[in-house]
Design a protein that fits this description.
The chain is an alpha+beta fold. The protein has a single domain, classed as Glutaredoxin. It is built from six helices and nine strands; from the N terminus they run E-E-H-E-H-H-E-H-E-H-E-E-E-E-H. A seven-stranded mixed beta sheet has the order 2-1-5-4-3-8-9. A two-stranded antiparallel sheet has the order 6-7. Strand 8 and strand 9 form a beta hairpin.
């Protein structure tokens, strides 16, 4: 079953490559419980099929980087990019895209989060196995307030669309 507006995010974990060691976060991959991360926050989450893939690198992630300040001005506390890649790949891709400190590059290495959302997809015909569908959502204190799932191409999950929905 696919997550819907009004649903609470499912219990899951995501990993993030931490560039600078801080209290509670060691250098390198760290795994976080999603319920803990979203508590009391407004999070813009966008999922995509893969790091370094053409549309994801040329349009999807760059749009959220470019509009981050505007999203935050509308009340968004954090922006997450979720992909079925490992934390090392997501960290490297984030550095390449200049996303560090702007967008949290969240790794869903085994697609557990994507599957829990019902937003996983079979990309085996492309040699990529199970991946995430392309989507965006706004989550407020763990509850989905906006959800935009692509049916084909790249139209409804853009940063521009989510910004427009924030009013």
């Amino acid at each position: 079953m696919t997550i819907q507006i009004g649903d609470r995010l499912p219990e899951s974990t995501l990993s993030e490559f931490i560039e600078t060691e801080t209290e509670g976060c060691s250098l390198g991959p760290n795994t976080f419980n999603t319920a803990d991360l979203v508590k009391g926050k407004t999070i813009a989450i966008f999922g995509l099929p893969g790091a370094y893939t053409p549309t994801c690198s040329a349009q999807h992630l760059p749009g959220y980087i470019q509009l981050a300040d505007q999203l935050k001005a509308k009340g968004v506390d954090e922006i997450w990019c979720v992909s079925v890649n490992d934390a090392f790949v997501m960290g490297a891709w984030g550095r390449d895209q200049k996303a560090t400190g702007i967008v949290r590059m969240m790794a869903d290495g085994n697609a557990a989060f994507s599957k829990a959302l019902g937003l996983d997809a079979d990309f085996s015909k492309h040699g990529m196995g199970t991946r995430s569908q392309r989507y965006s959502m706004l989550v407020v204190d763990g509850v989905v307030k906006q959800l935009n799932v692509e049916t084909a191409g790249f139209e409804v999950s853009s940063a521009e669309k989510l910004l427009e929905q924030l009013g």
